[in-house]
Amino acid sequence: xxxxxxxxxxxxxxxxxxxxxxxxxxxxxxxxxxxxxxxxxxxxxxxxxxxxxxxxxxxxxxxxxxxxxxxxxxxxxxxxxxxxxxxxxxxxxxxxxxxxxxxxxxxxxxxxxxxxxxxxxxxxxxxxxxxxxxxxxxxxxxxxxxxxxxxxxxxxxxxxxxxxxxxxxxxxxxxxxxxxxxxxxxxxxxxxxxxxxxxxxxxxxxxxxxxxxxxxxxxxxxxxxxxxxxxxxxxxxxxxxxxxxxxxxxxxxxxxxxxxxxxxxxxxxxxxxxxxxxxxxxxxxx
Length: 286
Fold this sequence. Notes:
By secondary structure, the chain is α/β, with parallel strands linked by helices. The chain has two domains: 3-222, 3-Layer(aba) Sandwich (Rossmann fold); 242-286, no CATH class. Helix content is 40%, strand content 21%. It has helices at 30-42, 105-118, 151-157, 170-180, 202-213, 223-240, 244-265, 269-285; strands spanning 3-5, 16-22, 45-50, 64-67, 73-76, 81-85, 93-99, 123-132, 142-147, 185-193. An eight-stranded mixed β-sheet has the order 1-3-6-7-2-8-10-9, sandwiched between helices. The chain has a two-stranded antiparallel ribbon with strand order 4-5. α1 packs across α5, α2 packs across α4 (170-180) and α5 packs antiparallel against α6. The protein is globular, with a radius of gyration of 21 Å.
């Protein structure tokens, strides 16, 4: 049995599916933390989970043992949980918090697609975070792209098509399945400074949340996470104040970051020409 249903779903309308996975696509736990924050603030209700037994190599994704305050031992297996939120706004939401599987990716994704089809999901949002060559001293970088067969979707959300090529994570597999069923999907990625070996980056989580809020109709209270972000930045500044080698490296990243931002504001002639050629090519194709 792959599903474990905990409770029945209410009737949902105009449903958006939002997912994040721990593991490869969750640098500094910023992706999963952002989804957990919305789940907690909306009091979303857990309604189902996926039995992990078929999808993990437990020597790689190990169960976790912990002790409660009363001394009770608890063994936790890789989690894959579904939640729903009945909204007063324009969209109801199904959340999925998972652990990237080791095995049977296609079968695993088909379980998600069953939930997506049965609830007439209109939009899928994949949230991830990755280690990147960005400095912590500049505005946090969050990028987004969209896959859709309908050009109007791309215009409505003003997200580019993805151009990444390389090893794929489970988010790419879900987006591919959605594309085949003509379900638009948006991928949101936070960029974590790769030189910071930290368990959580609240500043990145904060900015991922702000990007998500542009899409879904949910009021998010940022006050607590803004405090966490400020404390994190202050502590980081103090911790790195006497680390000369890291400071020199950060200065190089700052130069690259500033150059990339300048190109966005003032594209080089070649980029402008390329965009014009692509536009004319699309017009000829139509």
